[in-house]
Amino acid sequence: MGSRAKFQQFFEANSGVYYRSVGWVERGEEVNQQLIGLGLNNLEALIERYGESNGRYVYEECMKYVKAYSKVIFIETGLEAGPSFVARALAEANEKKWEFEKIKNDDFLIVPPGHWTVASYDKNIITAIVSPASPAEAK
Description:
Layout: H1 4-13, E1 17-20, H2 22-38, H3 43-50, H4 52-68, E2 71-76, H5 84-96, E3 99-104, E4 115-119, E5 126-130, H6 135-138
Parallel strand pairs: 1-2, 2-3
Antiparallel strand pairs: 4-5
Helix pairs in contact: 3-4
């Protein structure tokens, strides 16, 4: 979004925003497919499986996020291979009847191979650390 300060200011002023980028669009479909595969987005199937009251409860819990958000913001990172990622994020916003906005980001954390990201609890938000050796590597 240009800087950590701009992100913080924007984040505090805009609740109910669902952020998307190339990676989120790709992986978001996997999450949606998992929900579909489990039938968690199908009220009738949940009622048939769990009964009226429990089925409605499971469905409402799984779909709460739709009511909590009102906008999709697509963050352009420069990794977009074409307009399809933006179009898919826009289609998601239209489907959910949310607003849509596109913003450009040029402030990145570069995570070298062999590192993990962790919360830094400071103005940097996250940082990269050398990942601890796995039990197999420690032997």
